[in-house]
Write a structure and sequence with these properties.
2 copies of one chain form a homodimer.
Chain A: E1 10-14, E2 18-19, E3 25-26, E4 29-36, E5 46-50, E6 77-78, E7 83-84, E8 89-93, E9 108-109, E10 114-115, H1 125-138, E11 144-150, H2 152-163, E12 168-174, H3 182-196, H4 214-228, H5 231-237, H6 269-284, H7 287-299, H8 310-313, E13 320-326, H9 334-346, E14 351-356, H10 370-392
Parallel strand pairs in A: 5-8, 5-11, 6-7, 11-12, 12-13, 13-14
Antiparallel strand pairs in A: 1-4, 2-3, 4-8, 9-10
Helix pairs in contact in A: 1-2, 3-4, 3-7, 4-6
């Protein structure tokens, strides 16, 4: 399934405190990361891939002991893939506060000797970028060929373009936005309230109680999941189909002959699907991380320091940009990408932008779509050609 | 504020069991209702107003001891209002399973001597209509001038048109749909899961424990509330405005100088608003009722018995129809109303339909909008004129 094959995560320790946007700092932290491909001699072929809400450093490939654990962007990154690891040296970093290896709320706070829990400082997109830049320093990468991400990962790429304008030649921002809308924040806040009011949350110190706020996390994920899918896609995949009461009952395609159960269990396929997604997520994801990551989404707003003027906020960017959005994405709709494109054009940046008429809502950025994957492939071909012509010149 | 003034609820007891769509039955039940205006001698001026999710029989006016408790459609119903109580005799009925007086889960189950709780049977839109028809029988009303409702209330009006085609001359269906989409069901199911997994739910028997599943109900309401507002309206009203930390801090209109709190409390106005809505709702609404009413929404699907063919489902309707939808309503979007309109036209029914370009999302059906209120007013003028010309002829 994965063409890159077996990969291994690495980790890097950082003793020097990282100052955070909140005024707090994290000392003695670890970043877990993976790399694919080979860094060339002049270190000019590195691409940083930033992850979204529930993803991690595991961008591509599988682990030797987990052959089914395929990286979240394996269709995008690998030998011969749009982001071709035969050409580029690709890095995936797990962000601070996450629950996949980098220092997060479930790790021991050196100041207290107990898990951070709710004491883990609120981190922002900018903080993640600062931490990623330090990792790049350690890896000896002065300038990335590209920084790339989808959704929350796209926010990190955008933040790179203004925080370290000389450290990336290209910025690839997919299905993202320069700021959340009130509706986006509203969904995040309801999700957080579900977690925060779960009695098993214990003020964030649930690790000490041997429980996790599963019910809250499950509801949070179900809410989120609805916003990742398009209305049309849900209608197409699930519609009002009733779930077969027993697995043998497969001959009734449209469910018309099945009857309602007249209760609050599963009647509809969509209920079964969403509850399954919620159950699965609440098994592996950390509730404190969910709170942190949704807050990072809410707070991202580079124009804020410029009186809301995004053009001013992006004025010091130097990179070239690829942006892509998906027509049925109602979480971060195409208009949000167009706002960024307009602000970049105001600054006379070189921008490629595509709106892809895919049916899969926000999730489309993770899925197979030839038009989308070819768009990214062509863009990386250009990055590669530019680099080669520069080398030749 | 209310032009109809002081009103009083009445109640009607029903000993004969009401057979339900599920196969169960409710015996010894009470319906609470209010009436406004005067029933004329030939009983031809009665209008039934059906309520939506969290509303009740209290459609217009105030109570003598609760001068601030204004009926939910007071801008629509009253002397000189679009549904003019100087002409029409208007009835509002609290539906079975509700928590405002009609028999519901918190009432004593005569079979057990304890509150129904989760034993209260699942009721459907059709069941409510059957119960409403029995109330009409008791009141001596053979035929309504109109049956009218918005959202879930519109579903009841639509069900009346096929269940009792000769008992209404007009059917007024506002901001409604002939069936929920997968996305609608998904939101309802997440809301129910929040309630069902709240430890204070106690399998529906929380009355016995002296608690209510407030946290779950609060999250459920917050989810629902997001779907009632349009994205644009939220952006307009709240945007990314930060809440003033202290009430004196009012000079900073756009909040740009305020800073984030870097926590999970209230930063944004939208959070404050939604949490307030959730808190308020969880103080007065019953969680078992919330489960029942959302399930009634999910199950409504008159085309289901006709292989999904809505035209066939509406074939035996006889009424004339007014439908209205709101451009920014993404819960029951205009396309859902158009589906009903097309099915009625297939059946050569007389239909008036308007799409109103109001910014307020689904909630628009409850709000002041001159175009909307004039549309309804004009329609009721026509009903009145038809009746008079019939009397004259």
């Amino acid at each position: 399934m994965s063409s890159i094959g077996i990969v291994s995560p690495q980790s890097m320790q950082f003793a020097e405190p990282l100052p955070l946007q909140s005024g707090a700092a994290i000392a003695d932290y670890t970043l877990v990361y993976e790399t694919y491909g080979t860094l060339n001699a002049d270190k000019s072929n590195a691409v940083l891939v930033c992850h979204a809400l529930n993803a991690s450093h595991h961008v591509a490939g599988v682990y030797a002991d987990q052959p089914k654990n395929v990286g979240w962007w394996d269709n995008m990154v690998g030998p011969g893939k749009p982001l071709d690891t035969d050409r580029f040296f690709v890095i995936g970093v797990n962000n601070l506060g996450s629950c996949f290896g980098s220092t997060g709320p479930m790790h021991i706070n050196p100041a207290s000797g107990k898990p951070y829990g709710a004491e883990f400082p609120v981190v922002t997109v900018q903080d993640w970028v600062t931490a990623q830049a330090r990792l790049a320093d350690r890896l000896g990468i002065e300038q990335f060929a590209a920084v790339m991400g989808g959704s929350l990962g796209g926010m990190q790429a955008l933040a790179w373009s203004t925080m370290y304008p000389d450290r990336l030649r290209h910025c690839v921002v997919i299905a993202s936005t320069a700021k959340l809308s009130a509706q986006n924040i509203a969904f995040n806040d309801v999700a957080r309230q579900a977690i925060l009011t779960d009695p098993d949350y214990h003020g964030g110190d649930y690790y000490a109680y041997g429980v996790v706020p599963k019910n809250g996390l499950r509801v949070a994920r179900m809410i989120g999941h609805i916003t990742y899918l398009s209305d049309d896609d849900m209608a197409e995949k699930f519609g009002r189909k009733l779930r077969a009461t027993n697995p043998a009952d497969t001959d009734d395609e449209n469910g018309a002959e099945r009857d309602y159960h007249f209760g609050f269990g599963v009647d509809f396929e969509i209920e079964s699907y969403l509850r399954y997604q919620g159950d699965k997520f609440s098994e592996y994801f950390d509730a404190n991380t969910y709170l942190l990551v949704t807050r990072a989404l809410d707070y991202f707003d580079p124009a804020r320091a410029f009186g809301g003027d995004l053009s001013k906020a992006l004025a010091n960017s130097r990179a070239q940009f690829l942006l892509a959005s998906f027509a049925t994405d109602w979480r971060f709709a195409p208009e949000r990408s167009r706002e960024i494109v307009r602000a970049l054009i105001d600054n006379k940046r070189r921008v490629t932008y595509a709106e892809i008429d895919a049916p899969h809502g926000h999730d489309a950025f993770l899925l197979e779509d030839a038009r989308y994957l070819n768009l990214v492939r062509t863009y990386y071909d250009r990055i590669w050609d530019e680099r080669n012509s520069k080398v030749a010149a």
